[in-house]
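Reminder to self: tokens first, then the designed residues, so the page reads top to bottom the way the pipeline ran.
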């Protein structure tokens, strides 16, 4: 009986929890507004001092926006093989041997277990530019910024008849879904999560094709093939694949071969245009791609802060720094923004898992699931995910706190009601 009572209360709490963190903003738009892309870690192995040209390439891979924050979701770690003695970086170097230096190794954000090697090669201006951006990614980001819901990427297998058929099925179904799918009505309490008016949201899909032999898209192809853990295996790897890309360049998953079918395309599209049932990024499917885009510049919240509210004592870590910071606080904030990136990367590599705990593919290495957020990232002190209460950086602290309080109160009321009903004396 007591077990049954606990189970009843647990079910009610779970139900109210799901309800409390649900959001009426469509997944594609919530991701664009709030989900910061997970960073890839780039190791540049060299011997001796870098030349001015080589240092310029390092700087190229770390572009900064107008606010000084890193734009592309990459963290660059420059390693002198003659001086570095860290066992983790030595292991990574050993897993990627090359007589050519400098040598670049790009590791993906860990999603399906340890991080994977998405690209390695000679560290040149051309290779760095290819890892950082490509024509297809520029096209994808522009479409997403312009308001398209999802950009579908067809990765061709190289057999024209199969590729043409897959693309025809994809584009035909997407055209139907644009008129069939209706966006959820945005609830008043969720308006603060939008930087545009609700009526500006539209269901718009498009599709692009990428050849696996396109030299300019080599890095993107390798990233796409690691969106799921088995895409490099047969028979998947030799078939056409379709990836729905949304938010800030996040690939949901892969539709492979005969899986590129109307019902599966509709299922993915309905999910991405439906209300965001869980606003915590890590609990949602998908893998971020490297995108060289200053997202915080192009997605600017329209709701102003309530200037009449006084700052809450004890919550200085929330939101953006206030213009009223005293000299000491301003100095600390400036130091935090300019903190050397390599120090953070060293922390990342030191947290790597030992090689015997992972099963990497040939030529690949592993790194732990802890990735340090870039300096200046609003989420650097915690997760890169949006908080479950989905308060934004532009919300006053009281907004996020208020939603949490309501959530706790709902849970408490549910527990009390359930317990009262269950243990209430019954009369025959």
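Designed residues (428 positions):
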């Amino acid at each position: 009986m007591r077990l049954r009572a606990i189970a009843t209360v647990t079910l009610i709490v779970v139900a109210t929890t799901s309800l409390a963190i649900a959001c009426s903003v469509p997944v594609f738009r919530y991701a664009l507004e709030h989900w910061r892309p997970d960073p890839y870690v780039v190791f540049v192995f060299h011997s001796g001092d870098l030349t001015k040209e080589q240092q310029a390439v390092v700087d190229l891979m770390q572009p900064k926006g107008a606010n000084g924050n890193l734009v592309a979701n990459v963290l660059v770690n420059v390693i002198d093989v003659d001086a570095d003695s860290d066992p983790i970086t030595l292991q990574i170097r050993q897993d990627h041997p090359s007589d050519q230096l400098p040598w670049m190794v790009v590791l993906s954000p860990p999603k399906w277990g340890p991080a994977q090697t998405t690209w390695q090669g000679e560290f040149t201006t051309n290779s760095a530019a290819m890892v950082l951006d490509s024509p297809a990614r520029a096209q994808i980001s522009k479409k997403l910024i312009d308001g398209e819901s999802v950009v579908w990427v067809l990765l061709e297998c190289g057999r024209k008849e199969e590729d043409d058929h897959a693309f025809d099925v994809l584009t035909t179904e997407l055209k139907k879904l644009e008129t069939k799918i209706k966006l959820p009505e945005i609830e008043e309490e969720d308006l603060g999560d939008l930087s545009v008016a609700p009526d500006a949201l539209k269901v718009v899909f498009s599709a692009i094709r990428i050849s696996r032999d396109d030299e300019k898209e080599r890095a993107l192809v390798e990233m796409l093939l690691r969106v799921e853990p088995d895409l490099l295996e047969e028979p998947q790897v030799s078939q056409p694949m379709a990836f729905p890309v949304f938010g800030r360049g996040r690939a949901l998953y892969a539709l492979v071969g005969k899986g590129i079918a109307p019902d599966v395309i509709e299922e993915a599209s309905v999910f991405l245009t439906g209300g965001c049932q869980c606003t915590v990024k890590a609990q949602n499917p998908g893998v971020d791609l490297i995108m060289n885009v200053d997202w915080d510049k192009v997605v600017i919240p329209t709701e102003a802060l309530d200037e009449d509210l006084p700052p809450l004592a004890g919550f200085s870590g929330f939101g953006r720094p206030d213009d009223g910071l005293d000299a000491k606080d301003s100095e600390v904030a400036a130091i935090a923004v300019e903190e050397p990136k390599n120090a953070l990367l060293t922390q990342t590599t030191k947290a790597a898992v030992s090689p015997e705990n992972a099963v990497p593919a040939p030529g690949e290495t592993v790194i732990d699931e802890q990735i340090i957020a870039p300096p200046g990232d609003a989420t650097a002190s915690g997760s890169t995910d949006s908080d479950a209460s989905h308060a934004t950086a532009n919300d006053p602290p009281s907004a996020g706190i208020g939603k949490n309080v309501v959530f706790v109160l709902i849970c408490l009321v549910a527990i009390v009601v359930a317990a009262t009903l269950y243990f209430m004396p019954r009369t025959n």
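The chain is about 35% helix and 10% strand.
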